[in-house]
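for the writeup, i need someone to sanity check this before i put it in the appendix. the sequnce is what the collaborator sent (i think, or maybe the updated version? ugh). structure was predicted straight from it, no edits. if anything looks off just tell me and ill rerun, i have time this weekend
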Amino acid sequence: MRSFLRSLTPEQQVGLLFVGLFGLLAIATVVGVLLSLREQRTSATEPSPRAQQLQDYQSLLSSSWLMALVFWVGWAAGDGVAIVLFGLISFLILREFISLSPTRRGDHRSLVLAFFIVLPLQYALVWTEHFDLFTVFIPVYVFLAVPAVSALGNDPERFLERNAKLQWGIMVCVYGMSHVPALLMLDFPGFDGKTAFLVFFLVLVVQTCMLVQHLTSRRLQRPVAPAVSDGFHWRSWAYGLLAGGLLGVLMSGITPFKPLPALGMALVACAAGTLGHLVMKAIKRDRGVTHWGSAGRSVTGASGLLDRVDALCFAAPVFFHSVRWTFDL
């Protein structure tokens, strides 16, 4: 089997990986449908406590399908299209984030700056592979420019709060998400044409960690932060990290990592993603919603898109810079 895989071209290897991924997602979808039908028959007679667990499972599954389809389209169409697709996702999730943060007339210039100048420039830096500037553009230059532009709007009321919300939205939705296509642009010696495997590695270990954490938390009590999330326990978090780390070791063969570094990279990505997901839950509680695009309070045409990618927005920059530091790229 290994000799067969080595005989394939990089494009054929990535294509085979997509076939396997979509096959696994199809099996998981069939399982979800069967469980849903069983749940409907059960709930017809008495309510089942597993209904919420099934709903969360289907939500994770839909997010996995979404990311797999985006990656497949991006890979099939080329790096340029992938960057444009992720730029569009950044636009939609930033819009979703800002829609739950009240703005004033004095914020209009800052919003124009964020959506139509900062976002395209950040992805242009990815496209041209200016990674040194790409790394500091938003945390340094944009963080200074946004409040300056806002001050020119001549509206000092709740100035700090308004600008902090916009800066945080840019950091998560633009800066964080832009690191996913940036992984495709890295240049590894002897790894040409196979950087898509890095994106698969990142997404699969983070999704696995979150799924295991969610499933194991159902049997535990006394969450760490019950006002923020009733599903975050140290034990379930450890189980999720363990599952993600083991998967990372098993996937080391399709990455430039050896097993031990692969374990470290997987743990770093999983920790960042799950803790970031917890942070986004805290923000949603602060805004008084349970989902960014929940029923009855849908704020964009891409309902709930930020719910599906929030962990990736936190995991991607940590993983990207860990890879660059490890391989001195």
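The radius of gyration is 21 Å. The longest helix spans residues 10-43.
thx in advance!!
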